[in-house]
């Protein structure tokens, strides 16, 4: 079996020479889709290759990836910044809901180093429904520049269609390629319609990952190094019953 060190070096080499379309590594959030007022809700942030169930140890994350920001947006739009703690293979944080509705968890990090001529911009989100209220259950609650959202995530189940909305710069991400990854590693690429929507019907129970990557052609300097494009990735995990 390849060592974690070798995998990390291989990934860094890939970022230097390969197209962002080939990137398999991503940051993603895992949490329960429902919560309870007054009870702490666990938030986990992972880095790795979801399709291979290959999770990178927290102390092996490259560059300054560990310095991501993690914010909870309440149904009433109150924002609370969370502090995450490194564990063996993830970062962990908690928040305690105090109102009914849908909380949006937002993770963002722009890597400090430039790889080749590319800036890497990671984004992830999750939603937590508390009580029966639907306040806050909207894609626009997410403040990231690129995002994925499922309105009915709490009702996700086998053989029932799941609808996904994608946003870029606050607008519908029309005619963009996205990817759905099943619990067993099966992948399918889908193109959004003119409303920024895709849909899929899960066959198996378990965790599904939805990924949306976009490369912006833009030149500039980032921490003193020149770049000519910004690779942006958004992830959203859905647990299917």
Task: Note down, in words, how this protein is organized.
With 241 residues, the chain is mainly beta. The protein has a single domain (4-240), classed as Macroglobulin (MG2) domain (Immunoglobulin-like, Sandwich). 6% of the residues lie in helices and 49% in strands. The protein has one helix at 4-17, and strands spanning 26-30, 34-35, 41-49, 54-55, 69-73, 79-82, 85-86, 91-95, 101-110, 118-130, 146-149, 162-168, 171-172, 177-181, 187-191, 197-200, 206-222, 225-240. The strands form 3 sheets. Strands 2, 5, 6, 9, 10, 14, 15, 17 and 18 form a 9-stranded mixed β-sheet that branches. Strands 1, 3, 4, 7 and 8 form a 5-stranded antiparallel β-sheet that branches. Strands 11, 12, 13 and 16 form a 4-stranded antiparallel β-sheet that branches. The radius of gyration is 17 Å and the shape is globular. Residues 16-22 have low confidence and may be disordered.
Give the topology, please.
Elements: H1 4-17, E1 26-30, E2 34-35, E3 41-49, E4 54-55, E5 69-73, E6 79-82, E7 85-86, E8 91-95, E9 101-110, E10 118-130, E11 146-149, E12 162-168, E13 171-172, E14 177-181, E15 187-191, E16 197-200, E17 206-222, E18 225-240
In CATH terms, the superfamily is Macroglobulin (MG2) domain
Assign a percent range to the helix content.
Answer: under 10%
Listing every helix as H and every strand as E from the N terminus to the C terminus, the arrangement reads: HEEEEEEEEEEEEEEEEEE
Largest beta-sheet characterization: 9 strands, mixed
Uncertain regions spanning at least 5 consecutive residues: 16-22
End-to-end Cα distance, whole Å, is 32 Å
């Amino acid at each position: 079996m390849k060592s974690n060190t070798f995998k990390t070096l291989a990934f860094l080499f890939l970022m230097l020479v390969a197209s962002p379309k080939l990137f398999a590594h991503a940051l993603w959030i895992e949490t329960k889709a429902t919560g309870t007022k007054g009870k702490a809700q666990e938030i986990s942030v992972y880095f790795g290759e979801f399709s291979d169930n290959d999770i990178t140890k927290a102390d092996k994350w490259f560059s300054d990836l560990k310095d991501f920001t993690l914010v909870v947006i309440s149904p009433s739009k109150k924002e609370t910044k969370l502090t995450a703690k490194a564990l063996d293979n993830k970062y962990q944080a908690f928040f305690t809901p105090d109102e009914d509705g849908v909380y949006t968890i937002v993770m963002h990090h722009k890597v400090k180093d430039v790889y080749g001529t590319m800036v890497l911009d990671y984004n992830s989100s999750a939603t937590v429904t508390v009580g029966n209220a639907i306040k806050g259950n909207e894609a626009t609650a997410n403040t990231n520049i690129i995002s994925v959202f499922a309105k009915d995530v709490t009702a996700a189940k086998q053989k029932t269609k799941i609808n996904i909305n994608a946003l870029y710069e606050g607008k519908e991400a029309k005619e963009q390629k996205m990817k759905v990854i099943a619990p067993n590693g099966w992948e399918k690429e889908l193109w959004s319609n003119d409303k920024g929507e895709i849909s899929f019907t899960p066959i198996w129970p378990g965790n599904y990952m939805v990924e949306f990557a976009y490369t912006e052609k833009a030149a500039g300097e980032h921490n003193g190094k020149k770049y000519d494009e910004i690779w942006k990735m958004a992830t959203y995990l859905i647990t299917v019953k």
